[in-house]
Amino acid sequence: MDYLSHNVAVNLKQIRQSKGMSLGEVAEQTGVSKSMLAQIEKGTANPSLGVLGKITSGLRIEFQTLIDPPREDFCLVNPKEIIPTKELEGQYKVWTCFPYEDSHSVEVYRIDIEPGGVYMSGSHGEKTREYITVTEGVLMIECHGHTQTINKDQVYKFETDQAHIYRNEGAEMVSCTCFFLDYTGLR
């Protein structure tokens, strides 16, 4: 299930239950079939914008309410159990642990780089900063004309408003966790 389908599934069920409505009552009020609503709540349907429009209109809610990330009081992510966001065989794997859409200011990634592997990342835009901690191996990062070696258990920060390169020049796998901060609206 993709990110938006998950959000819609969780939010629709929560909204329906908070209004004390059955699937049949929501179907009556929205004009969307009970079976389609059940599939949406299970995350097995990929509803069109028209269907989502009927739901928001019928339930008298904002569209954003349906697609926003649902509140999570806690969440455990095991990157090895999710599909990599980016992958180049023999070079690297990148997992998005917590996407930007969750908070609109922070992203968390896990990156594994094979021995001799290189991962090139584009700019993340103005006023973005990366905090990175290496959990295995030794990582080299090139950005702003500067090269930094980061050893296991060290933490490094740098501005990510331009392209940057992650290199594994060692003989063992490099694993790191990256935290991207968009501080556009922060003081």
TrEMBL record:
GO molecular function: DNA binding; DNA-binding transcription factor activity
Sorted UniProt keywords: DNA-binding, Transcription, Transcription regulation
Transcription regulation among keywords: yes
CDD domains: HTH_XRE
InterPro entries: Cro/C1-type_HTH, Cupin_2, Lambda_DNA-bd_dom_sf, RmlC-like_jellyroll, RmlC_Cupin_sf, TransReg_Diox_bact_type
Keyword Cell inner membrane: no
Pfam families from the UniProt entry: Cupin_2 (PF07883), HTH_3 (PF01381)
Entries under SMART domains matching the protein: HTH_XRE
Gene Ontology, cellular component aspect: cytosol
PROSITE patterns per the UniProt record, alphabetical: HTH_CROC1
UniProt domain HTH cro/C1-type: residue ranges: 12-66
Protein name, per record: Helix-turn-helix domain-containing protein
Species, as recorded: Anaerobutyricum hallii
